[in-house]
Amino acid sequence: MNRNCMHKNQVTASAKVLLLCGALALAGCYEKKSGTSETAPTSTPQTETAPARTTPAPGASATPPATANQKVDIDLYLEVSNGMKGFMPPPAADKEPTVFQNRLNKLLSEVQDGIYVDAKRYYLARENSQGKPVLDSVTYNTLKNTIVSGIKADVRGTPLPDMLRAALENSVERRAVSVIVSDFIHGPDPNNPGQFLSLDSDIRSSLKQAEHQGLVVAVLAEASPFFGTYHPAVKKPQVKRNLAGEQIPFYIWVIGKQEEVQTVTNKVLRNLPAQQAYFGFHYQQVPYSALLKADQFRPAGIVYCTSRTAEVCTSVNLMPEPDAPVEFTIGLNLSGLPASMQEVAYLKQHLKLSATGGRASLGTILAASEDVKAIPALAQYTHFVRVRVPQLTANAGTFTLQLPQVVPAWINQWSTGNDNNPVAAPGKTYQFNKIMEGVQALYRDQNQPVFSATIKFNKETK
């Protein structure tokens, strides 16, 4: 008998007491084991709690999608070839740091001292005398000194696909996010000029681990004044040129799990350049709702929520008439998306509306103003999309908003087939569009949009 249930002087008590204590034992009395705090399992079967729902009902959650809020491990790679020297000219009291130096100093500081980075490792990427990529592991101070004081040694850059492959394989093994900084000018093996023709497929091959491991790629582009010897990919008519502040692009690539990449872009890099591209990003759930009661987005025509009590409305009853089309607004919470995808201009250009069982078109697309953010019923939404429904052809159907995966227009604008004279054509990178085609090929079988939001409808009858 359990001593916690019965005192010694109760051993000879009545049968009722024995039965009572036995019942208590079955209900969960336990006996402490000497020297531990463990408890013996109860003998009464416990009623299991239903597991938490892992996939929210469409539009049901007002919580933003999983975004950048956890700590990450980062491997930061800086290419240190002769071609990179012009971004990091020697310091002097009368010289301003270049855009490159400013950006890298801030990035390095956040990686080293910020609250969103756990483990961090720093590498200088170069090519050895055998033509193989080398990732030199260095200290924070060494990397910082390289950024602010420049590259002193005569260093040959490794071919771009080789550098990407070496960096990604190293980081995948460590389960870290790769942050790769380079001008991304492709310099193939002089003995293998055919690499110029296979750049896109070579890039895809170098990043195959990203596809196999379910990783995403973010590409950020910026231009910086360049001082010193510039080494173009196209060597005619000049093998190299001396530049005195012309704008040359550099790139920061971030490769890893989507949530971790977003931590890096949103919390570590911050203040991102205007040129951004995201590959493989997808959001299973973006909070959304038809807004039918808010004065700020008052509907037109006959339309109301199918459920009279639902806080989030993803099904509507409506009845457009020839002289009175229905209009209503859908609220979206896009706070988890990359910043460039949240811009109203981007959404106006790329957001799509499809309808089954009727005709519908997009109206205005607005970002939440400060006044709207102050309204409790609307504060959870970042964007508002007006939908116009002039006609229904079925008694039931759907209206679906989708943001497709798109290759940003700036990629072609920053690309050139001849980078020999950046003075005449500044701010362009040799075959950059081909490089991006290689990245995009990793996700060619993934046809899902960035996000999708569907409102069901029932045709109201008179």
Task: Give the helix/strand layout.
Blueprint: H1 15-27, E1 72-79, H2 99-113, E2 117-127, E3 133-138, H3 140-149, H4 160-174, E4 177-182, H5 199-206, H6 208-213, E5 216-230, E6 241-256, H7 258-269, E7 275-279, E8 288-291, E9 302-305, E10 315-319, E11 326-332, H8 339-342, H9 344-350, E12 352-356, E13 358-367, H10 370-373, E14 383-392, E15 396-403, H11 410-413, E16 415-416, E17 429-430, H12 432-440, E18 451-459
Parallel strand pairs: 1-2, 1-4, 10-18, 16-17
Antiparallel strand pairs: 2-3, 4-6, 5-6, 5-7, 8-11, 9-10, 11-14, 12-15, 13-14, 15-18
For the residues shown, what is the average pLDDT?
86
What is the approximate shape?
A: elongated
Strand content: 25-35%
Could you say how many structural domains there are in total? 2
Number of strands: 18
Order of helices and strands: HEHEEHHEHHEEHEEEEEHHEEHEEHEEHE
CA radius of gyration: 30 Å
Number of DSSP helical runs: 12
Percent helix: 10-25%
Query: Strand order, biggest sheet?
Result: 3-2-1-4-6-5-7
Give the structural class: alpha+beta
| Low confidence ranges | 1-57, 60-66
Offer a quick outline of the entry.
The protein has helices at residues 15-27, 99-113, 140-149, 160-174, 199-206, 208-213, 258-269, 339-342, 344-350, 370-373, 410-413, 432-440; strands at residues 72-79, 117-127, 133-138, 177-182, 216-230, 241-256, 275-279, 288-291, 302-305, 315-319, 326-332, 352-356, 358-367, 383-392, 396-403, 415-416, 429-430, 451-459.
